[in-house]
Here is the input.
Amino acid sequence: MSIYSARHLHGLRMIVTGGGTGGHTYPALTTITTLRARLAETGAEPELLWVGVRDSLEAKIAARAGVPFKAIVTGKLRRSTNPRDLLRNVVDAFRIPLGVLQAVAIAGRTKPAVVLSTGGYVSVPIGLAARLFGVPYLLHEQTLSLGLANRILARVATRVLLSHESSLAHVPARSRERSVVTGNPIRPEILAGDRANGLAAFGLDPAVPFVLVTGGAAGARQINQMLTAVLPDVLPHCQIVHQCGSLDIAEMRQVAAGLPPGLAHRYRVLDFIHDELPDLLAAADIVIARSGAGTVAELTALGKTCVLVPYPYSAGGEQRVAARTLAAQGAAVMLDGAEATPEQLRHTIRALLADPARRAAMAHAAAGYGRPDAADRVVAEILAVAARR
Here is the structure.
């Protein structure tokens, strides 16, 4: 069992923190799931506590996963010069010390062997508390450049876990020797999709190329509008399943109803794709999506041919950076700014459908960028620092 003995694994106590968005929360959940599975092989089970904000996404996810949860008060430093944001910064300046005191009390009572944070401003108090008690502390960064919270915490972290090689340049210099590239943990079910099941679930024709379009759980109006304009021109060459989000579902159903009868059966629109997503990803010849950290991790791990339309207002332009990086490596097509038009989308889809060799080359390049074993790597780092303690 290498450096991990049964003695080290039994009774492993860990605090997990991070949240605010799915980009921070789901990697933490995937890591917890993988850690539980690893320890179950030895007959052990970790003692877990998730620390986050009350009534938040992480609180809901923790409850669903059966992980005990403690809420703390915390604040966020906003870099906007908007007067309203400046006022909120003043208010939060009084909340942050209280959150740190709560985190110190939680860490003192829990006495964890290790602390893992996956980013978001809620992770700062627990990270500082771990430092105070000398507890091994690992932080994980999902994006190419470190978020503000992780830039602060990287200076006190035992290990800095990165999703991308290029992120090393963004780590504070004195923290780089403590940094390791693990990749961004991906839900195991995403990697276990079945192409035949994906096609069958929506009555898709195996002989016709399949394009999956998604703007994420909430949908993306920009992508929806671009697709609306090109459906009559691309559907003769492919079939499409489209996750459009709840806000646009009524409008997109009207678009579907207005398609020519000979093409209507080739377009399926849903507000949200549930358990079928892994199978649809496995079946897709092309995926059109945003370029958030989780999406990029999944598409590259699966080695998918993808057209990325970055969200224009992502923090620090992170989605643009991710899409541009993949496009430069021939691992994606990026449609952004003046290029994010129906005309460019139409041209891109038709060009990719007409060139299977190019699709295969893009998929191969994407797979070279992906890290499907990221969750196992993160768990290995957790167990390594816990064992050394």
About this structure: The mean pLDDT is 92.
